[in-house]
Amino acid sequence: GWCEGRCVKPDREFYDRLEGRYERNPADRLLGDDRNANIVAARECGWEGYLFDHHNPEHSCEELGAMLLK
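Given the sequence above, the corresponding structure tokens read:
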């Protein structure tokens, strides 16, 4: 695979490889995840991040939708 099993969130390599694979400005990227460490790592790479609340998925989906439409 593209990471050959060696890079996973929140490792910086995970985000770097995605950036290399998809030619977009990091500020145009959004990671939605339920682990804060992954959101922090994404933000450190210049991405937007959203901490998904699996206890309130409807609310999380609404907020994510609003973020994507802005």
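The two ends are 33 Å apart (CA to CA). Try to locate this feature in the token string yourself.
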